[in-house]
Write a structure and sequence with these properties.
290 residues, mainly beta, Triple-stranded beta-helix, 2 domains, six-stranded antiparallel sheet, five-stranded antiparallel sheet, 21 strands, globular
């Protein structure tokens, strides 16, 4: 065991990039962030050139500066399809020359029809620089092309207000009767925001703290409609793999979804009518680490 005063005079060069990166990560976090109190505005020059203003990034503790206005070329979209790309910071540590470099790389997604859901492309080299990864892609911006029209947004937050990780996105129609699979295990997060949509189109959020495999939760929504009031509820369970969320089934039965819709008239002595129906679907899940 040794004790080293990193930020102290030692009469020799002893502070490394790893020392500084661990200091920044300890203060700001181990993920990627935009430095400052707001996210720089992203614009397009034409249909396939994204312009990123000058800004500073903190990527796994490494300070990366974009000087001036940086342009990134995106492959053009096609009229009848849509696509999602990721812009990443690629970090490379060349141990033979004892040098480290960073550059922006585009990871292109696959084109799908406009009726299909978009998903993130596969990032080729995953990892965290703080864990010793010598070559890693860290996604920072999402670009979506709807036909020929591009749009872009940051998928990392600023240091003052870190963004949650987007673990899932979908539609009501595709999830109301199906399980969903998250992009990461829930035990890596201290809080989940589960965004749902009802059959009536209303959108709400249910928050889960200390999520874990085997955890069950219920979503309840109330919707007035004409002369009736609808109470819609559905129970879910995070499966043992901590990545899949399915509708919880009574007594572990596989015969029916645990979902109900109650409706009644808002008058005295009105009867309550109950039916089994899939009236709630999860459309997004966000994870927080703080």
């Amino acid at each position: 065991m040794t004790v080293e005063l990193v930020t102290g005079a030692a009469r020799s060069a002893h502070v490394s990039s790893d020392d500084v990166a661990n200091l920044f990560a300890g203060l700001a976090g181990r993920d990627a962030y935009v430095m400052g109190n707001s996210l720089p505005k992203l614009t397009f020059q034409g249909a396939n050139r994204l312009q990123i203003p000058a800004c500073g990034l903190l990527v796994n503790g490494r300070f990366v500066r974009l000087t001036g206005s940086t342009q990134v070329s995106i492959q053009s979209g096609s009229q009848s399809a849509k696509r999602r790309d990721l812009i990443c910071v690629r970090y490379i540590a060349d141990h033979s020359s004892n040098t480290e470099t960073a550059e922006l790389k585009v990871v292109a997604g696959n084109s799908v029809s406009k009726s299909q859901n978009l998903s993130d492309p596969n990032v080729p080299l995953k990892g965290n620089i703080l864990d010793g990864a010598p070559d890693v892609y860290v996604p920072i911006i999402k670009v979506e092309l709807d036909g020929l029209t591009p749009s872009a947004e940051w998928i990392i937050g600023n240091i003052a207000s870190p963004q949650p990780a987007r673990l899932f996105s979908g539609t009501y129609e595709s999830t109301k009767s199906a399980q969903i699979t998250l992009s990461d295990i829930v035990t890596n997060y201290t809080r989940l925001d589960v965004v749902y949509q009802t059959s009536g189109g209303d959108v709400g959020t249910t928050t889960l703290y200390n999520p874990r495999g085997g955890m069950k939760f219920s979503i309840v929504a109330m919707e007035p409609s004409n002369n009736m009031v609808f109470i819609k509820n559905k129970c879910f369970e995070i499966q043992s793999n901590s990545k899949t969320i399915n509708a919880a089934r009574p007594n572990d039965s596989t015969s029916a979804w645990w979902a109900k819709e109650h409706r009644f008239q808002p008058t005295d002595n009105a009867g309550i009518y109950t039916s089994h129906a899939n009236v709630i679907g999860i459309i997004a899940v966000y994870g927080y680490k703080i």
